[in-house]
Write a structure and sequence with these properties.
Strand order of the largest sheet: 1-2-3-4-6-5
Shape: globular
Largest sheet: 6 strands, mixed
Number of helices: 3
Distance between the termini: 45 Å
Strand content: 25-35%
Number of strands: 8
Order of helices and strands: EEEHEHEHEEE
Length: about 170
């Protein structure tokens, strides 16, 4: 009922779907993949989340997420953490920034979170793109045309550049 997806034009060297549901009938997960980027010897770690609706549920899921990232992803490897955080009260941001040293793409480039819900009139900022180890180049809310039929949330798109270390010269 609550789907996640990571699409990449580059190959995955690793992927895993981690169940973080705190209630038996709640489908909540973290997708974690490592993507092999051309021209670099380090993987790009991408995580897609769909957190719960209840504040206490999200706090527990954020702890699991933070521990997962700290224990499995070296701090010097680039990271994108995106998805439906159900964080309309903006409580996850401080925790993620302090515990993982990530920044949020839309607040960095546009000064505020992207409004992504509901798709027919995006008013609430529920979805996020966090990152570290990369340079943000652009961001966009995908809420028009064909995008409107894919979900009740608008898609978010980010454009990044991965810099040294780890860049293999041509």
């Amino acid at each position: 009922d609550h789907g996640n997806a990571i699409l990449s034009k580059f190959p995955f060297s690793y992927w895993e779907n981690i169940n973080i549901a705190l209630f038996p009938r709640s489908s909540r997960s973290i997708l974690h993949g490592a993507i092999e980027l051309p021209g670099t010897d380090r993987p790009l770690h991408v995580l897609c989340v769909h957190l719960g609706l209840l504040e206490a549920e999200r706090r527990g899921q954020l702890r699991i997420l933070s521990e997962r990232i700290r224990s499995r992803i070296p701090a010097d490897e680039p990271l994108i953490l995106a998805g439906d955080f159900n964080d309309w009260r903006r409580r996850a941001e401080r925790h993620l920034h302090q515990s993982l040293a990530v920044d949020e793409l839309f607040t960095e480039l546009e000064g505020r979170h992207a409004r992504s819900y509901p798709i027919w009139q995006p008013l609430l900022a529920m979805d996020r793109i966090y990152y570290r180890g990369m340079v943000p180049l652009g961001c966009e809310v995908l809420a028009q045309g064909e995008w409107r039929s894919l979900s009740d949330h608008a898609g978010l798109m980010g454009d990044f550049r991965v810099d040294a270390p780890g860049v293999v010269p041509d």
